[in-house]
Amino acid sequence: MVRYYIARAALAIATAGWSLAWAAPPSNAQYSIPSSARNSGVGDMSSAQHKLSSSVGDGFGEFAMNGASYTLSPGFWGGVLKVAPALATISVSPTSVPDNGTPLVFTVTLNPPPAVATPVAIASALITGPAMTGVTNNCIGPVLVAPTGVGTCTISANNTVGLDSSVTATVTLAAGAGWVLGSPSVASGTITDDDSVVGVTAPNTTINDGANAVFEITCRGAPTATVSYSFSGDYSPLPPNAGPTVVTCGTPLIITIPTVGDPILNLRTLRLTLADPSPFILAPGAGFATILVVDEAFFARPIPTLSAFGLMLLALLIFVAGQMGVRRKM
Q1: Which of 76, 81, 130, 166 has the smallest C-beta neighbourhood within 10 Å, fewest atoms?
Q2: Does pTM top 0.70 for this prediction?
Q3: H helices within the chain, ranges in order?
Q4: What pLDDT digit, counting tens, does each position of 18-60 carry?
Q5: How far apart (Å, rounded) are the C-alpha atoms in residues 37 and 51?
Q6: Taking a C-beta distance cutoff of 8 angstroms, is the pair 100, 118 a contact?
Q7: Domain spanning 197-300 has what CATH number?
Q8: Domain spanning 87-192: which superfamily?
């Protein structure tokens, strides 16, 4: 009798266990390891994006799978699917380019790589600094990151205006579904003006006669530039025109003109104008410079004042004029 009840009990337990094992529908909580998964304790882990932790008997195994779309079939033992979001980072290379169309290349990386091409959102792609012509910004929209884990966008400038200042291009990533921001999430590069230009300036645009009129000719984009220049204006005597003269780029060519007074004109202008410096170009607004020469003695003369006698005479004239006006009315 005892053996009968023991046998029935064993049959009941076995039946219940079988029912529990197959009652649950397929889900991410029960699985069989697909062929693409590898035990990280045995082989290399190619991706940490999806980890499967399971208690199988008295052992524990951790697995890594490539990709995001795996169907887990039911198995006897339960499992847990852990999803670790990818880290999104950005870099730029080179960090500085000339404004001749050479691009700054911004590289967006997802680690681990996505199973399929994934657009990573850009929070901002800004160009800061003085206005530069010919800028092409291809980083405004999302950057498509391939399954290799890398995607790129570019910013460049093809500028024909001389003497522009450098500008800075800064691209900032935005967080999104499927990735979090890593470090760095911001990258910046510089676009510099590489034009060969020549320009002239006057450090002091107003001087007193007798002082030196100083002009500075500068160039950039090459070791040296050859220039010619002429003088004009109502200043007299005008200095002789000069050139061709070699200018060392990076070191201003300083031209000094001693000035003298004029008995008639109190304000005179002296202008230096550069000739065509081909193959260089003239910097916008810097093809000439003008200096105003002021007669210091004229403007320093005291304003005439009335003496006491003069004031008395003026008062008498005003009184007489008033009396004449009264008589006319009568």
Answers
A1: 130
A2: no
A3: 2-23, 296-300, 308-329
A4: 333 333 343 343 334 444 443 333 333 344 334 444 444 333 3
A5: 9
A6: no
A7: 2.60.40.2030
A8: CalX-beta domain (2.60.40.2030)
